[in-house]
Amino acid sequence: MSEFVEIFEVGPRDGLQNEAREIPTAEKIALVDCLSRAGFQRIEVGSFVSPKWVPQMADSDAVLKDIKRVDGVSYAALAPNMRGYEGAVAAKVDEIAIFASASEGFSKSNINATISESIERFKPILKAARHIDMPVRGYVSCVTDCPFDGPTPPQKVAEVAAELFALGCYEVSLGDTIGKGTPDSIAKMLLAVLNEVPPHRLSGHYHDTGGRALDNIDVSLSMGLRVFDGAVGGLGGCPYAPGAEGNVATEAVNAHLVALGYDTGLDSDVLAEAATMARAMRTG
Ligand code: HMG
Ligand code: MG
Questions:
Q1: ipTM
Q2: DSSP per residue over the chain, as a string?
Q3: For residue range 11-24, what is the model confidence (pLDDT) as tens digits?
Q4: Hey, which of 49, 108, 149, 206 would you mutate to test ligand 1's pocket, going by the most ligand atoms within 8 Å of its Cβ?
Q5: In percent, how much of the chain has pLDDT > 70?
Q6: What pTM did the predictor assign?
Q7: pLDDT at 136 over 70
Q8: Is the CB of 118 under 6 A from ligand 1?
Q9: For atom 16 of ligand 1, which residue has the closest CA?
Q10: Which of 4, 57, 119, 265 sits CB 3.0–4.6 Å from 47 for a disulfide?
């Protein structure tokens, strides 16, 4: 039997958060409903962040309210602080994601906090989540390069990943936010992180700005990672990271993994349908 590699779908959140057009809630719901039929175990649906900072995610509660939830799919949302956590819980998410950075420049730009201030903000979220058995995933951004601070030392990534893991994140997703990572820089970063967090608790979240995301997935596979984030249609990027373009396209990651002989559990026809839908959302 083929070995299973999971793709964590982040398109409705990371794919859409940066779109200039105000996307109607109904279109977002239709995209999530299509993705729910594709066979994902986890789908990131939205963010409970300040609508002044990311207007596109302001309707995440409405999206979560009206999607058709499929048994066995965990619907996730980002929360930067307790207010976001409470909003996400009220919207009945199945899991939360907190998001830190390995570089100070991006941390300040994205969440207006230093790395250590952000960790302090996350502590009450993890404590509250533990009380209600809510799984929390942790992101570390800028794992190889930062648009403000330049190359990120691998040891700093390891430090932040270890902190999120020790606080109770069940998985740490390693974000090449601006897609500048190469197999060499990703391998160096993973070597440091793997001293702190085991490979089955990591995910590779590689943006494809530099066209190296699939190569970066290959090197990560060779180092034991078995979860990768993708955004259907290859949309996305972070509004607070200049130069962050598309996420790696889920359908490309799926085709690549299948060609390598892995089982992803995904239906490529439904994925193609979702990718068409996502790309049309970009152009309006
Ligand atoms: P701030 O301005 O420092 O904090 O923002 P604040 O407490 O003064 O709040 C500002 C306003 O937002 C206030 O409203 C708050 O009430 C409100 P006002 O009084 O001015 O009317 N507010 C909220 N509203 C709704 N939900 C909330 C919330 N919190 C405060 N949860 C803050 C700090 C963290 C809120 C802000 O910086 C923020 O929302 N940042 C989010 C940025 C973001 O979502 N970035 C994209 C996601 S990260 C990413 O894409 C990277 C990733 O994909 C991995 C990778 O690729 O590397 C995950
Ligand atoms: Mg991202």
A1: 0.98
A2: -PPB-EEEE-IIIIITTT-SS---HHHHHHHHHHHHTTT-SEEEEEE-S-TTT-GGGTTHHHHHHHS-PPTTPEEEEE-SSHHHHHHHHHTT-SEEEEEEESSHHHHHHHHSS-HHHHHHHHHHHHHHHHHTT--EEEEEE-SSEETTTEEPPHHHHHHHHHHHHHHT-SEEEEEETTS---HHHHHHHHHHHTTTS-GGGEEEEEB-TTS-HHHHHHHHHHTT--EEEEBGGG----TTSTT--PBPBHHHHHHHHHHTT-B----HHHHHHHHHHHHHHHH-
A3: 999 999 989 899 99
A4: 49
A5: 98
A6: 0.97
A7: yes
A8: no
A9: 50
A10: 57
Average pLDDT over residues 185-192: 98
Q: Is 205 in the pocket of ligand 1 (CB under 6 A)?
A: yes
pLDDT single digits (tens) 84-127: 999 999 999 999 999 999 999 999 999 999 999 999 999 999 99
